[in-house]
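Q: C-alpha cells for this one, please.
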Amino acid sequence: MHKFILRRLAMLIPVILGVSFIVFSIMDLTPGDPVEMYLGDNYTDEAHASMTKELGLDKPFIVRYLSFIGNAIQGDFGISYSTHQRVLDEILARFPNTLVLAIAALFFAILAGIILGTISAAKQNSIFDSTSTFAALIGVSMPNFWFGLMLIIIFAAGLGWFPSSEFSGVKSLVLPAIALGTNSLAIITRMTRSSLLETIRQDYVRTARAKGLKEYKVIIKHALRNAMIPIITISGLQFGFLISGAVVIETVFSWPGIGRLLVEAIQLKDTPIVLSLVVIKATMFTVINLGTDIMYAFFDPRIRAQYKAKGA
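A: Here is the predicted structure, written as C-alpha cells:
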C-alpha cells in the first residue's frame, strides 16, 4: 500500500507543473498592467519602472515562472498585487470558510443521497422511486448559481428564515451548503440506488433473507456495506468538485472563502493569488482522490488482498 501511495504522490508533480504553467501563461497574456494596480492611480514613470523591477516583471516569462515554482516549493507564494499582503496569509485567512462550506455541502449530499438512494432501491419502481429519479435528474441538470438565487429569493428575501449574505454562524451556512451540495446529492442518490440494486441480487443477500432477517437489516447490514465502494468513489470526487465549484456559490452568497477570493483576483489580474489558488486546488483534488483510493481497502477486503499480492 505504501508503494502505491508514493507512486500516486509522484504523479502529483507533473500535474501541478502542467496546471500552473497553463494558468501562468493565461494570466501573462491577459490584458492589464499589474504594476498600475499595485501602485494605484497616482504614480510616476520612475516608480512604475522601479516596481516593475521589484516584482520581477521585467524578466522573461520562463524565468518568472521558474522563480514562482522555486519560491512556492519553499512556501512563499509571493505578494498580492491588490492588497500588498503575503498571498499565503490571504489564502489561509479564507480557506477555513471554504472548507467548512464544502464539508457541510458534502455531508448534506451524502446523508440525503444515501437515504434517498437506499429507499429508492428498496422500493424499486414505486412512486417514491420514480419521484426520486425525476428529482435527481433535475438536480444534476440545474445550475447551482440559479438554485442559489432561488433559495435567496424564497427563504431569505421572502420568508426571512435565513440570511442571504451574512457570515454569522450556522444559519448563514444552510442556504449556500444546500445550493452547493444539490448536484452532488442527485449524483450520490443515483449511484446509491444503482449500486444497491446490483448488490441486493447477490446470493449472500438472498441467504440473509432466507435466514429470516428483517428486510431493513438485510439492506443496511449486508447489502449497503458492500455497495459502498462506488459511493465512496463518487463522494471523494464530489468533495474535490465542491471545493472548486464553491467559486460560484461563494460569489452568489458573498461567502468569504477562497472561491470568492479567486474571482476577485481574476478581475484585478492578481497573478500571484490566482496561480497560488489554482495550484493549491489542484493539489487538494489529487490528494482527495488518493484518500478515496485508500478508503477502498477499508470497505473491500478484496482490494487489500490485491495490494498484498502485488507487494504494494
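A few notes: The mean pLDDT is 78. The chain has 14 helices and no strands.
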